[in-house]
Design brief:
The complex is a heterodimer of chains A (358) and B (260).
Chain A (H helix, E strand, L loop, with lengths): L1 H7 L2 H17 L1 H4 L2 H19 L2 H7 L5 H29 L9 H4 L1 E3 H26 L24 H6 L5 H22 L15 H24 L27 H9 L8 H4 L1 H20 L1 H10 L1 H27 L6 E2 L4 E2 L1
Antiparallel strand pairs in A: 2-3
Helix pairs in contact in A: 2-11, 10-16, 14-16, 15-16
Chain B lengths: L5 H6 L2 H6 L8 H10 L9 E3 H4 L1 H4 L2 H20 L9 H11 L5 H25 L8 H23 L4 H15 L15 E2 L2 E2 L7 H6 L6 H32 L8
Antiparallel strand pairs in B: 2-3
Bound molecules: protoporphyrin IX containing FE.
Protoporphyrin IX containing FE (HEM) binds next to helix 6, helix 8, helix 9 and helix 12 of chain B.
Chain lengths: 358, 260
């Protein structure tokens, strides 16, 4: 069993598994968002978590002080996700029956005094949070390692957990993409959300049925490309950033043979059976062509298709192109991951002469 | 009203009345006065929709982000009494903090609080998305929030260097090497090789973004000072300002969102 988990936790398998689970959750959110399902999931999770923690290798990385926050956030996200789905399912069932959202019921619209109602809630939250922090601080000492030594790098050199999603992207992209361009797209994309999502419904209450596109798009990024990658980066990457299963001992001598091949090598050597051309642009022209096609031809092409036209009719050209560009940027990560796993593809464009590897 | 307790007596002293200018908040007029007359509480409206008070709606995650930020400010100030940002002292000061300060958990609270703030801010964003609260008229405030999220992460990033241990300098090295790869602006990034006129290299490791970030080509003492100032003064000031904007806009945008 543990062997099996060690194998399927590898991103090659766990990425499609997590994506499938995400799709199932979103499709059947009205079932997931029932109390029965929630309690069932909790009752399954507790023994499974206990069983996991009995394993010494697993316990070691779970209880490493700097990893405590990510355990906490996983639990909170699981709970709050279920809760949001529960509230959304509640509202969507009401909306099906032609009733308004629960938050809009007269008794919830009624105005109440901030003192004492809100002030009391806030006080309780503050007290709870303080107790939590103090207990946490007493149980877990803040880590302090050896003094800084510029001549000796620890292996693996990991950033704090909330950056490990970015660090994990380094497996698939060069630093200029993983560390600069993609984070830039994330920030700009987040800020752009209210301006490109023109759907007036679902403002101020939980719902999924009334805004499916926004939900699927954002939550895919949030769960699969953000939280999942952080979990992989934190728990499943050991020395040299090689993959280690959750029950695997971090053996510093584990050697993983990796032969990744550039697209240009596929093109010239494997398919055309010729030597690589000397001119770098000729050498890489196939990859450059694909990239230009992906960035500049695909969006207008989709715009001519039926649902592209529909979107443009709804939101206009500018919003359409910004949206599609953000989606393309986001999709480049899973696309590159899948290509890597299926074909050991290293770079689509490999121009180390210009530091431009894609 | 016949029996007068100690509380009533205190309420009538001049000292009490000079601080709280209203009677006990048991009637409408005084409840309004409590909130409106207190500089902290007046961030709130006097009354608000019940849905906005329910924990099930806001999860109080925005409020807790603010509270944790305040807790970090206080514990951070206390730590500043003990800590000197130089390569010679930084690490030893942290050790001293551990060994010589009795019952000291300030460093723990500060460190775990930093993690907690990242958690609460993320969950806050998640909630705002799930309730569609970024929709008009709150688009701008969502944008302010995203900037706050980035700044929260930058606060953590800059603070991570200060203990000056192995974890610190190597985590920052990983991050700074990404800056090196910035297109056109980092000497190891695409396009930098093009910014060259004859023999004159415009983007080199002595002037690119990584150099500006670290005040050097590697994580050394100048970087420590730079991160210290960013972490203790500059970014917190920006965050505090933006939180003020964020809160002001919540009120101006009509309070906590609710079905239209
Ligand atoms: C330092 C970080 C932040 C602090 C201290 C903060 C604080 C708050 C507080 C206290 C509220 C009142 C309602 C609530 O508690 O949920 C609020 C609302 C809001 N926040 Fe934040 N926030 C922060 C970051 C963010 C982020 C990252 C986003 C989004 C990307 C965001 C977007 C919003 C929006 C749109 C509202 C209005 C919600 C509504 O009306 O329902 N904030 N914020």
């Amino acid at each position: 069993m543990k062997e099996l988990i060690n194998i399927i936790a590898d991103p090659i398998f766990s990425f499609p598994i997590v994506t499938t689970l995400f799709v199932l959750m979103m499709k059947y959110y009205r079932i997931v968002g029932t109390k029965k399902f929630g309690i069932g999931a909790l009752l399954t999770a507790i023994p499974v978590a206990t069983w996991l923690c009995l394993d010494p290798n697993f316990r070691k990385i779970i209880l490493w002080p700097d990893n405590i926050p990510i355990n906490i956030i996983i639990i909170l996200i699981a709970w709050l996700t279920w809760y949001s789905l529960y509230r959304a399912a509640l509202n969507d069932n009401r909306l099906d029956e032609g009733l308004g959202p629960w938050e809009g019921l007269p008794e919830n619209r009624e105005k109440v005094w901030v003192w004492p109602n809100l002030v009391y809630t806030e006080l309780m939250c503050i007290i709870g949070c303080t107790v939590f922090l103090v207990v946490w601080a007493i149980i877990f000492k803040a880590p302090l390692e050896e003094p800084a030594n510029p001549t000796w790098a620890p292996n693996p050199a990991k950033a704090p957990w909330y950056f490990l999603g970015l660090q994990e992207m380094l497996v698939y992209f060069d630093p200029w993409m993983a560390g600069v361009v993609l984070p830039g797209i994330i920030v700009v994309g987040l800020i752009a959300i209210p301006y490109i999502d023109t759907n007036p419904k679902g403002n101020g209450y939980y719902t999924i049925a009334e805004r499916p596109l926004a939900m699927w798009g954002f939550l895919f990024g949030w769960f699969v490309l953000w939280q999942y990658l952080i979990i992989v980066g934190t728990f499943l990457r050991g020395p040299n950033w090689t993959y280690y299963g959750p029950f695997e001992y971090w053996d510093f001598h584990k050697v993983v043979a990796e032969y990744n091949v550039n697209l240009s090598e596929f093109f010239w050597i494997k398919w055309l059976n010729r030597p690589m051309p000397a001119n770098m642009f000729v050498r890489e022209f196939f990859g450059i062509l694909i990239t230009i096609g992906y960035l500049f031809i695909l969006p207008p092409a989709i715009a001519r298709m039926k649902w592209g036209k529909k979107i443009i009719a709804n939101v206009g050209q500018i919003r359409y192109y910004i949206t599609i560009f953000l989606i393309i940027g986001m999709a480049s990560l899973p696309i590159k991951m899948v290509l890597r796993w299926l074909f050991s593809l290293k770079y689509i464009i490999a121009l180390p002469e210009l530091e431009l590897n894609l | 009203m016949s029996k007068r307790g100690v509380a009533d007596y205190i309420r009538e002293t001049q000292v009490w009345k000079s601080i709280f200018r209203h009677g006990p908040p048991t009637n409408a007029r005084n409840r309004a006065a409590v909130v409106a007359g207190n500089v902290f509480l007046h961030l709130h409206p006097i009354k608000l929709k019940k849905s906005g008070v329910q924990l099930g709606y806001t999860w109080c995650m925005g409020g807790l982000s603010f509270f944790v930020f305040l807790a970090l400010t206080v514990t951070g100030l206390l730590l500043m009494f003990y800590y000197r940002p130089t390569a010679e002292y930084a690490y030893n000061d942290i050790i001293a903090l551990k060994e010589h300060v009795p019952l000291g958990i300030m460093r723990e609270i500060h460190r775990w609080g930093a993690h907690a703030m990242v958690i609460t801010v993320w969950l806050h964003m998640f909630r705002v998305f799930m309730t569609g609260s970024y929709k008009p008229p709150r688009e701008f405030n969502w944008g302010v929030g995203v900037i706050l999220l980035v700044l929260t992460l930058l606060l953590s990033f800059t603070g991570y260097l200060l203990p000056w241990d192995q974890l610190a300098i190597w985590a920052i090295t990983v991050g700074a090497n990404m800056a090196k790869a910035t297109p056109f602006l980092g000497h190891g990034g695409p396009g930098a090789a093009l910014a060259q006129i004859g023999d004159f290299v415009m983007v080199s490791d002595k002037n690119d973004v990584r150099f500006q970030l670290l005040a050097g080509r590697f994580v050394g003492e100048p970087a420590l000072l730079r991160f210290y100032i960013l972490h203790c003064v500059f970014i917190p000031l920006v965050v505090a300002t933006l939180i003020a904007v964020h809160f002001w806009r919540i009120r101006k945008d009509g309070g906590i969102s609710a079905p239209l």
